[in-house]
Specification:
single chain; 58 residues; alpha+beta; Alpha-Beta Plaits; two-stranded antiparallel sheet; two-stranded antiparallel ribbon; 2 helices; globular; binds iron/sulfur cluster
Amino acid sequence: MKVTIEDSCIACGACESICDAVFSVSDKAAVNESAVAANEASVKEAADACPVSAIVVE
Ligand code: SF4
């Protein structure tokens, strides 16, 4: 599973609230790749919750 953040991210913080092991937000969300495998369900939840659909899960 690969997770990327598109430039449309508005740094709202929702993804970090849902899964702070994977997402950290400053001026844009960043992904901690090493934590993705252990948190796949939360990553998908965060992707669904992102208001601008900036989290791309492949
Ligand atoms: S939920 Fe979406 S818009 Fe909000 S910080 Fe995360 S990636 Fe950015």
